[in-house]
Write a structure and sequence with these properties.
Blueprint lengths: L2 H4 L22 H4 L3 H16 L9 H7 L5 H20 L25 H19 L3 H11 L7 H15 L9
Helix pairs in contact: 5-6, 5-7, 5-8, 6-8, 7-8
Length: 181
């Protein structure tokens, strides 16, 4: 027999790179947890910010990551723009709202809104499709991570979110060609 036939392949799934392990080889989740003081500091700051009328977007998941210095200012702005686009898509294209309409606005007919105009809808679809395509250039996992972050769902995929936000920042013109970083 040749020597290449005698080499055995490693069994099982390959280990996740960069994850701390205990003596038995299992992932040490205590080592990767978030520090409690960071969460407490953010909660206190968020409550004060809302009480003093600051930007309500800072009270979101992306605002938390920006406060904790996990997102840069450019990534935070890209996340805000993408979140606004997702909300507008839900409202205009899918006819869904993230929050209920106030009772006073229920009497307004759909024809009175500028968002119901077919030209406005087509322009928005083209704008959204271009931004969505730039996000998809990073892959479906990147898109899912950014969507979860922008819809205020907790996500453990920070590196994928950052990659997607950098792609969106490039698309929105926040970085690149003559822009300062």
């Amino acid at each position: 027999m040749s020597e290449t036939a005698m080499v055995q392949k490693p069994r099982g799934r390959p280990p996740k790179a960069g994850m701390p392990r205990d003596k038995a080889g299992r992932i040490d989740w205590w080592a990767v947890r978030e520090e409690a003081w960071r969460i407490g500091a953010w909660n206190a700051w968020r409550d004060k910010a809302i009480a003093f009328g600051m930007d309500p977007r800072l009270a979101t998941q992306r605002g938390k990551l920006f406060f904790l210095k996990d997102l840069t200012e450019i990534e935070f702005e890209a996340a805000n723009r993408w979140s606004d686009m997702l909300a507008k898509r839900d409202r205009v294209i899918l006819s869904m709202r993230r929050s209920p309409k106030p009772p006073a606005l229920e009497q307004v007919s759909p024809g009175e809104s500028a968002e119901g105009d077919p030209d406005v809808i087509e322009r928005f679809k083209a704008t959204f499709a271009a931004a969505h395509q730039s996000l998809l250039s990073g892959g479906k996992i990147v898109e899912a991570a950014v969507n979860r972050l922008c819809r205020d769902e907790a996500s453990g995929m920070l590196t994928e979110s950052k990659r997607g936000l950098q792609l969106l920042a490039l698309h929105f013109g926040l970085v690149g060609k003559g822009r300062k970083r």
